[in-house]
Known about the structure:
The chain is mainly alpha-helical.
Amino acid sequence: xxxxxxxxxxxxxxxxxxxxxxxxxxxxxxxxxxxxxxxxxxxxxxxxxxxxxxxxxxxxxxxxxxxxxxxxxxxxxxxxxxxxxxxxxxxxxxxxxxxxxxxxxxxxxxxxxxxxxxxx
Length: 120
């Protein structure tokens, strides 16, 4: 699969995909005889994971640590799982914060509706 197809499937820009490869966030991509990258389904799945981690706020340094663990093989699965569980807990905590803020906004909006209803 070509890099343009991968960009379309993952939502990542071509430059981001190249950066992820150069920085070591993703394993080296196989290249064809013409020198162009040839992405596999596994490569695309990895890039989707990276995109998700980044979109949900995982720092690049943690993503690099996670990628290094991945390259070290299956013996690092417990450490990788722990990293993902930690990140998931941060997401859960952040969602609770957002829910609390939304509830405050909803109460304020309801109050405005109540006041505006009295003026109509």
